[in-house]
Write a structure and sequence with these properties.
There is one protein chain. This protein is an all-alpha fold. The chain has one domain (18-456). Helices cover 82% and strands 0% of the residues. It has helices spanning 2-10, 21-53, 56-64, 66-93, 96-131, 139-151, 153-168, 174-196, 201-226, 241-273, 277-293, 295-313, 317-350, 361-377, 379-394, 399-423, 425-454. Helix 2 runs antiparallel to helix 9 (201-226) and helix 8 (174-196) packs antiparallel against helix 9 (201-226). It is globular and about 65 Å long. 55% of the residues are buried.
Length: 467
């Protein structure tokens, strides 16, 4: 055990059960944020290169697949993040035997996920595009793009599985390095496949899959080499159904929470598609900009899940509450900064996605500005949503975050089916913000009630870990 502790002190993992919560949260989040921004940049690179070199119709084709991509990617992110909460709890408790068993269970569960999701998504791709009213002039390009993305689900799972395990140990820097490399590769492959090989939107999708695969493989190799105590032994692969269920009990609600949110986005996309390819192009450009400036929200959320998980394992619920208070102040400051960026530079950022020679250029900019202005007003609700949702998931309370996802779905669908008919594109713009407010309110109340219950003397936090 002493040799193992010494090894931990030399590697890149971070024990978040002692020290200043403010400093720990900030230093853990910054690499995450840089990585997420780079990830968003290479997602934007796809869209910018497609919009600038192929045209607004191709931009709309890629954009209309966004909700379907989010449906799959969100499920994977939620599932792997949920699995890693258990890993973080064992790491916080310094139980390395169960830590390795947890990793072995995650690998098995992810392998099953890859097979099932790849087959199901590829078989249903065109039907899903028709279901969301994809216009006839872009449906073939949309299918060419999304079918390649779905075929590369294994690369999504590989990177997210390994990076979530590393983050569960407090190492948020290593996944960042490989993500930066992946971002650079993606842009290079975009230019090669689109401008040199003239592969169109299919080239953009292929570039994304290849770059994700490279980052996933490198992250895996790094983990094997630098964290030998994580490698499961033969006995670690043998677990009973209850142990797998312990992972699924947190992973599935987190995955379904993302999927529920994604279903609402899919329904909204169906309402948007009725407005035509120009409006779809404007919405695509605006949402890419929105996703860029809201990356801190997701980054702080991942931090809180790992921070809360480790401190639950150490029996330090007092540190969980203190960390949430500190994180709330940080995230509101970042929300205000995001609002300022959109008000000052929103038009300039959306203009990156469309060639100024496009006939609908000015209309696209006008519609994009309307969307960004409305959404930015509600950023505080969105940012707080991530803090409370992930803190609850980190301490093993996944039911209310799942219910918050249901609230988001109901709200987004209700708005998508009513307000666009009354307010036009403005109704589309209000769907997301209304969903954020409904979910954030539920999560804030749930967090304070649940944490109060957990701090009662009768509550036995260690029982969640199974040892």
């Amino acid at each position: 055990m002493k040799n193992l502790i010494a090894m931990l002190q030399r590697d890149s993992s971070k024990d978040m059960t002692s020290g200043s919560p403010f400093k720990l949260i900030l230093t853990f989040t910054i690499p995450l944020l840089i990585g997420n921004v780079f990830q968003q940049f290479y997602s934007m690179a796809d869209t910018i290169i497609v919009g600038k070199t192929i045209g607004a119709t191709a931009l709309a084709a890629v954009g209309t697949t966004g909700p379907l991509n989010f449906l799959i990617l969100g499920f994977i992110i939620g599932l792997t993040s949920g699995f890693a909460v258990i890993t973080a709890q064992y790491f916080g408790a310094k139980d390395f035997h169960y830590l390795r068993r947890s990793i072995a269970a995650i690998i098995k569960l992810c392998a099953v996920t890859i097979i099932g999701m790849t087959v199901l998504s590829m078989l249903s791709a065109r039907s899903l595009l028709r279901m969301i009213n994809t216009p006839a002039d872009i449906i073939n390009d949309a299918w060419s793009y999304i079918i390649i993305i779905f075929a590369g689900i294994i690369t999504m799972v590989l990177y997210n599985m390994t990076s979530c395990i590393l983050r569960a140990l407090g190492d948020s820097k290593t996944p960042l390095f490989f993500l930066i490399l992946s971002s650079i590769l993606n842009i290079g492959f975009d230019l090669l496949f689109i401008l040199v090989f003239h592969m169109g939107v299919a080239g953009a999708a292929l570039a994304t899959v290849i770059s994700q695969g490279v980052s996933g493989v490198l992250c895996l190799l790094y983990t094997i080499k630098n964290y030998p105590y994580l490698i499961p032994s033969r006995n670690d692969w043998k677990s009973n159904a209850a142990f797998y269920w312990r992972h699924l009990r947190i992973g599935l609600p987190m995955a379904f929470q993302f999927s529920i949110t994604a279903i609402g986005v899919v329904v909204l996309q169906g309402a948007l598609n009725l407005f035509g390819s120009t409006t779809i192009a404007a919405f695509t450009a605006a949402t890419k900009v929105e996703q860029l400036v809201t990356q801190p929200a997701g980054s702080f959320g991942v931090t809180m899940a790992n921070y809360a998980g480790q401190n639950l394992g150490a029996g330090r619920l007092d540190r969980v509450r203190d960390g949430v208070r500190k994180c709330t102040l940080l995230t509101l400051a970042f929300a205000a900064a995001g609002m300022a960026i959109l008000f000052l530079f929103g038009n300039a950022l959306t203009g990156l996605f469309v060639n100024s020679s496009e006939p609908a250029y000015l209309e696209i900019l006008s519609l994009s500005k309307r969307y960004l202005t409305i959404c930015s007003i509600f950023f505080p609700a969105l940012f707080l949503l991530f803090v409370h949702r992930n803190a609850l998931q980190g301490v093993g309370k996944s039911f209310m975050p799942l219910m918050a996802g249901v609230f988001e779905l109901i709200t987004r669908v209700a708005v998508a089916m009513t307000l666009p008919q009354l307010l036009g594109f403005t109704g589309i713009c209000l769907a997301g913000p209304f969903a954020w407010v409904s979910a954030a309110a539920l999560l804030a109340v749930s967090y304070f009630i649940i944490l109060r219950q957990m701090t009662k003397p009768s509550y036995r936090s260690h029982s969640r870990l199974g040892f």
